[in-house]
Amino acid sequence: MDRLRAYMMLCFVGYTVFLFAMGVRFDVSPLETFAHYADPELLRTRLFETCLHLHIQPPLYNLAIGIVLKLFSGFHAPVFYAIFIATGLALSLMLFALMVRLGVSKKLSFVLTFLFVCSPSFVLYEHLLLYTLHCAALLVAAALLLHVFLSEKRAWAGWGFFAALFLLGGIQPMYHLVYYLAIAAGLLIHLRPFRRRHLAMALLPGLLLFSFYLKNYVLFGQFTTMSSFGKGPWIKTVGNLPWKERVRLAEEGKISAVSLVDRSWAIDFYPPEIREVKGYENIPALREKNKSTGEVNHNHLSQIRISKCYLQDAMYAIRHYPRTFLCSTAWAALAFYSPNHVGVPSLDWLNALYDRVVYGKINVPLSQYLPWLGASKHVPYVFLLIGWPALFVYGAWRARRGGGAERGVLLFMLFTIFHVTASGILFGLTEANRDRFEIDSFHIVLLAVFLQSVVLPWWQRVMQPVDIPESPDVVQ
Questions:
Q1: Residue 361 DSSP one-character state
Q2: Which of 383, 380, 449 is nearest to 414 (CA)?
Q3: What pLDDT score does 470 carry?
Q4: CB neighbours (10 Å) of residue 454?
């Protein structure tokens, strides 16, 4: 075990050096361009105030970004790079340990972990300033800690499990309070003799996560950590209607004038009665229309009302234009089960290798055979589109038959896979596969368990030599 961990670290470091030699560099541009982040200048100079008044995202990731900007001003890029490389290494080691704990052989765990680390998706998110890699690492850490807690009854592992869930909820709005409470309730049912201990472990992280929602309710009247939620359903409904149809609906008063403005446009494009909101005049994070980088400040106070209008218009479109919503949801499903690629020309061969061998790409747009998909250019990746749901079914069957710590971990993984898949497909669109990467580690674990429990025993039976009885000597 220790020797394989050492090999894993050595291979990981060697692959990182190889990627650097191939021209892969860490991308810090999202700090300036992505809506997820507050103004980096405000994070550097007014960190606590800015995170307190952040309503578009949970505050923890912006808080961590701001701490790095404060401590390493001017040298933040290499620090972020080092943090992400360390996170990738930790993710690989935890994934390996989780598979071994679930009964997978060490050699098979090593091979699958290394294939995952070498994948273009892993390389992309390991070199992109976004929370995707950290969420994937926290999910694996939570599953590993849960197995330790259930199998060995270690109190520190139970505390660590709920701390990981808290960090997830404080970073990614998809892992919201309902997700936390559902898992806590499920564990409460599973651990009947230890309910009091479990409640104590879940209570403190749960209250801290609840405080993020309470803070936004007190400050903005929104019991959520993602005030921009309405923009997701809007792009899948009204945002996909023909322009003339949108104008007609707005003129008839069936949808608001907000829907005539793209969700990413500058605030000045919105009607005055929507964008002119008073309050918090001395809080730049809520009053600046643009960040110091020139990008739109989607944390502007008016964005709360704008998002409400988008959501209201989206609900109208779902009722009256269900075909548009169903079509865009099909697009999102195809995008969800599509891989990410490394945008470095020297690694085009890596993208092609994984597309053809690992993901089963069929280079024919499905819209040729399904006209109702409209302008979709998505091609099917068979091993993802069929293989991942099949592994989910197998995991559910195994969880039903199994027991103990393995059953608890499998149920946690299955619930998370279902939650992320449903959220990504229902509320996402072109970037839904970014959400899927966060649970790809769980798919790898299910694949490992399937290979160890089903495929390898079958292969051993097939390859076992057959004893042929010797024929009796022929008497002359």
A1: B
A2: 449
A3: 60
A4: 12
Q: What is the pLDDT of residue 2?
A: 77
Q: How far is CA 313 from CA 35, 229, 325, in A?
A: 22, 13, 13
User: Packing angle between helix 177-190 and helix 404-427, nearest 10 degrees?
Assistant: 160
Left, alpha or beta for 474 (phi > 0: left; psi -120 to 50: alpha)? beta
**CB 24 within 8 Å of CB 344:** yes
Question: Could you count the other beta carbons within 10 Å of the beta carbon of residue 71?
Answer: 10
Check if the beta carbon of residue 439 is closer than 8 Å to that of residue 139. Answer: yes
Q: What is the dihedral of CA 360, 26, 116, 140, to 10 degrees?
A: -130
Which phi and psi angles does 278 have, rounded to 5°? -95, 160
Task: Report the C-alpha gap between 130 and 23 in whole angstroms.
Answer: 20
User: Which pTM was predicted?
Assistant: 0.93
The whole-chain average pLDDT of the chain stands at 90
**Mean pLDDT per 10-residue section of the chain, whose length is 476 residues:** 84 94 94 92 95 95 96 92 96 96 94 95 96 97 96 91 96 95 88 70 94 95 92 90 92 93 90 89 94 93 94 94 89 89 92 92 73 68 92 94 88 96 88 91 96 89 69 50
Q: Specify the 3-state DSSP secondary structure of 128.
A: strand
> What's the token pair of residue 388?
């991942």
Q: Give whole-number Cα distances, 453 to 99, 102, 104, 448, in Å.
A: 12, 11, 8, 8
Q: Is 381 helix (H, G, I), strand (E, B) or coil?
A: strand
Rounded Cα–Cα distance for residues 143 and 414 (Å): 11
Give the 3-state secondary structure of residue 338: coil
